[in-house]
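Progress note, sequence design subtask.
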């Protein structure tokens, strides 16, 4: 299985796979500069619940299926 993360300008545009999978895409972005306060969450960083970092969390929905042309190209260059 291959998972493909599509970025544009440093932002995740979509995540897809060459096989259907039951998974949800969640992006944790630690670059909070310019974010509104209500968009920033305290994300745990280890087993110690007091170890947290500020981050923006984005829910991108389900993992889709990658276009066959992209799959064929990745198979050729892998």
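Output:
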């Amino acid at each position: 299985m291959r998972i493909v993360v599509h970025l544009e300008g440093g932002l995740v545009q979509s995540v897809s796979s060459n096989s259907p999978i039951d998974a949800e895409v969640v992006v944790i972005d630690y670059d909070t500069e310019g974010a509104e306060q209500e968009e920033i969450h305290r994300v745990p960083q280890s087993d110690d619940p007091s170890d947290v970092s500020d981050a923006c969390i984005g829910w991108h929905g389900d993992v889709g299926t990658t276009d066959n042309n992209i799959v064929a190209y990745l198979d050729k260059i892998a």
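Residues 68-77 form the longest helix (10 residues). Work on this subtask will continue into the next period as scheduled.
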